[in-house]
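Protein of interest.
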Amino acid sequence: MASYLITGASRGFGLALARQLASLPASDVSKVFATARGESPALEGLAKTSSGRVVVVNLDVTNEVAVKQAAAEVEAKLEGKGLDVLINNAGVCQYASEGVKSMDNLAESFTINVLGVHWVTRAFLPLLQKGSLKKVANISSTLGSITLARSAHYLPAPAYKISKAAMNSLTVQYALDYEKEGFTFIALAPGWMKTDLGGGDMADLTPEEAAKASLDIIFRPGQELNGQFPKVFVQGWEKAKGNNQYDGSNSAW
């Protein structure tokens, strides 16, 4: 009976993760704390039909005080138990039409994609230390890969790429600091999704496909993936043409 917390669960991939977890037996998933910074009818609807297993928590990852308040709220609702899995999904992808010289959104991207991940992880770390699984999945993207930067240069989103590269580095630092305590920290690449943040209908995977494939990785036992950058595995996409192959391998940093 594991407990999960997902940031950015009001829509898209985060909502798909919450739905997938809620569909599993209560013997496997006891609680899903689904956070959002505003109202989400879809998320509220999921909570109402979950028999108390999905709990909606107000959380703005850019507000460190609000993050600490959310951690206190979750701690109270866990009633002395620990949190098993944290999924840092909240993020932003902003564009700069004329490339890096026109980038004026780097500060906001860093606040959400890097500082937000750090603040949330730090605030919930004591609860994770009390949990049995001790897993943290930071949702990343191969667009944050420095090795693969040339192949992704066509997309004018430098702030997103830079901030995800920094988040990947943050993930590794946490992985090194807490591996002796049995933690597994991963930078997880769920694929190009048909979401508002992703590419709409032009993208490869539905949020549901990406959520299932991502949870397959998160569910994997042991610490083998600690400090790694795994891609999801999706049947039929292992040798797809183009930039995106979802073969379950580790991405290059």
In short: The chain has one domain: 2-218. The chain is about 35% helix and 15% strand. The domain at 2-218 is CATH 3.40.50.720 (Rossmann fold). The helical segments are 12-22, 41-48, 64-78, 106-130, 158-178, 207-218.
